[in-house]
Amino acid sequence: MYKILNKKVLNNTVIEMEVFAPLVAEKAKPGQFIILRSHEDSERIPLTIAGYDIDKGTIKIIFQIVGASTLRLNELKEGDNIHDFVGPLGLPTHTEGIKKVCVVGGGVGCAIALPIAEEFHTLGANVTSIVGFRNKELVILEDEFKNASDTLIMMTDDGSYGEKGNVTIPLKNLLESGVKYDMVIAIGPLVMMKYVVETVRPFNIPVTVSMNPIMIDGTGMCGCCRLSLIKENKREMKFACVDGPDFNGYEVDFDEAIQRSKQYSDFERKAYDKECNLLAKGGKN
Amino acid sequence: MALIPKKHEMPIQGPLERTTNFCEVALGYTKEIAVAEAERCLNCKNRPCIEGCPVHIAIPDFIQEVKKGNFNEAYAIISKSSSLPAVCGRVCPQEKQCEAMCTLHTKLKVDGVGIGRIERFVADYHNENSTNSIVPPKSNSHKVAIIGSGPSGLTCAGDLQKQGFSVTIFEALHTPGGVLVYGIPEFRLPKSIVKKEIDNLKALGVEIKTNVVIGKTLTIDELFNMGYEAIYIASGAGLPKFMDIPGEGLKGVFSANEFLTRINLMKAYEDNSYTPIIKSKKVAVVGGGNVAMDAARSAKRLGSDVTIIYRRTFDELPARHEEIEHALEEGIKFNFLTNPIEIIGDENGNCIGIKCVKMELGSPDESGRKRPVVIENSEFTIDTDAVIMSLGTSPNPLIKNTTEGLSTTKWGGIMIDEDTGLSSRENVYAGGDAVTGAATVILAMGAGKKASQAISKKLLNKE
Ligand SMILES: Cc1cc2nc3c(=O)[nH]c(=O)nc-3n(C[C@H](O)[C@H](O)[C@H](O)COP(=O)(O)OP(=O)(O)OC[C@H]3O[C@@H](n4cnc5c(N)ncnc54)[C@H](O)[C@@H]3O)c2cc1C
Ligand SMILES: Cc1cc2nc3c(=O)[nH]c(=O)nc-3n(C[C@H](O)[C@H](O)[C@H](O)COP(=O)(O)OP(=O)(O)OC[C@H]3O[C@@H](n4cnc5c(N)ncnc54)[C@H](O)[C@@H]3O)c2cc1C
Ligand code: SF4
Ligand code: SF4
Ligand code: FES
Prior knowledge:
Chain A is α/β, with parallel strands linked by helices. In chain A, 29% of the residues lie in helices and 32% in strands.
């Protein structure tokens, strides 16, 4: 059992929790994730390690309420226990030798991008962060990003906050104006990452993307997190949980990944509706 | 007494009924049938059956006790050699092991004694009727860590704890049991049996830490720093193989591990499960081993029309005999001498068919098995909404990659000394599927037993 020491609402649908998991905290590195089951009968879901504190033995997670499992996770209050919590899983983000980096985050992907921006900042790299949200209400972690970035560019789809438009617009402008990054890191919805890759491609700068396929075990056992890399016209299968979640953006077959992410959408919709109904009736127990 | 040529039939759930539920298929012998089956045993002087059992259970001795109705005595005899008789009685490939060596089979050319079935009866009887409470043994203050809670780790843990060692099992998943809980389905091995074995270990004092991935959460070297004096790696062979053919990324294509984990570990077949499973109209399962049979029969129970695709013939199917029979009874179709070359998808990335070639058996390879060869121009397509790849598994590299000085084979199996299970690292032992690659429960158990003896000797002589 893993106790929730702190719970914070970042916006209507994005929640932050600080969870007591000393063994995980001891080992955690930016870019890695955990898998949890909120209750004994819950689905296993992966969430990125958004922060960690070795002294307190805690791991910070930030999640968006999108379906039944995240809804149930949100039912837990400060002081409650998460039933299972395993990690740190996956490989840490590659930071070596990178002096100037552009971190591009979209929506709740910003939660995943933040610890990476912070790590680069701590290591002394020059950090540009471009973060995008649908509208002002959904903006999260602005101060945290400010503190971790040399330059912060805020975008909203509707222009209600920061600049109007999506994250690829300022990215393209920066690249066209001749700014040279050692690496661009894109974290967010698959479609966003795909377009970031296309935006950067003409400039010949390495792009890292953080893949988030459906997972079960997170240790390389089920193969459900697999994706294809295409290298010199040859396909190579990788398991995101052990070979990733970070991959070379130029190699990822995004179209396949986008299709695979919808594999269970019918079930997910039904499970969400059912859970909402249960909640409306005042909980299950 | 006249010789009965056939094994006593096992009472089973009929095929029509059982394909609509996940309850156990084989219901087990009654007392009367168990005794009657035991009567078939000739109590041979040379005891050939024992040679067929990888852990050398004193088979004729326990069967003699069953004949007399002394089921608890029978259990005590089995316990000396096996710690999981309720499991092995159900899942051992008896027709290749103990029962294959039985005099009735080898000399008299009739069915061998139903050793597995009697063993299962004895274990179930014991589990139902045993009242002796477990008393934790006196501690000898030596600490041993075990990685993985499959049959190999559980056996090693039990044997060491009984001798007074303080044993901690580290398990990556949230529930202990290894393949016994995430792979082998409920209808073949009820999870309550595995749970009972695990509860017994806990009662003995074994500590089980779930949600710890060795190689990630902790490393082998850290375990030594934490005071564990010896480590037994029983991490299994969990890495699924794919075929490296086009289309394996399509929706509707699964590894057997994914499909079975969703069903067994996550109970996705239950209506109120939070973990999804796709119920496809038509399912093709590629492979011919126990894993393929389990995936096929699980898919059948979810309402699918199931075809097994296997590149050799019926005679080469590596699965347990009984499972093949049950699969046939349940209406699962077989496409022998067939090998997939591509999975076909529609414009939305959904699997809609599997393109195959026909094979013929050529000359035998090194293993003595006839090698399947492709027949030219024999391509054809099977329409299907889902493909489950059941091609076998190999050891997971997580531990190897994070443990300096641990030697492994080309395919990732941990190299050990055959007699002790000792790896290339001092005080690190290994066994089960992590060493052999995907094998059997009884071999994994036997390896755990052997390592427990070596560990005990090493740590106690140290003093
Ligand atoms: C490595 C990794 C890190 C992630 N980090 C974060 C994070 O920090 N914050 C955050 O909000 N989300 C993160 N996600 C996504 C998060 O796991 C999903 O939002 C969550 O599983 C949704 O579950 P649900 O039941 O609430 O929603 P559902 O209704 O089940 O699904 C909503 C969407 O979530 C995805 N999803 C569903 N089940 C899984 C699963 N078992 N594994 C992965 N994705 C799934 C699907 O694409 C689906 O379309 C991460 C995913 C991965 C793979
Ligand atoms: C579907 C299926 C059906 C089968 N049917 C039969 C059958 O009928 N008869 C038969 O005899 N055999 C059968 N087998 C094979 C048999 O189950 C295995 O040979 C046996 O379980 C191996 O035991 P093990 O203890 O070595 O490993 P496993 O049972 O694989 O257990 C290993 C455990 O270690 C854990 N682990 C792995 N890595 C780590 C890590 N880094 N840190 C912590 N924990 C870790 C895993 O999560 C797992 O729980 C079947 C296998 C499958 C998959
Ligand atoms: S453990 Fe397996 S091989 Fe040994 S006697 Fe029992 S069923 Fe036969
Ligand atoms: S070989 Fe067969 S008949 Fe002979 S003792 Fe063993 S089980 Fe009995
Ligand atoms: S999540 Fe199972 S292999 Fe990656």
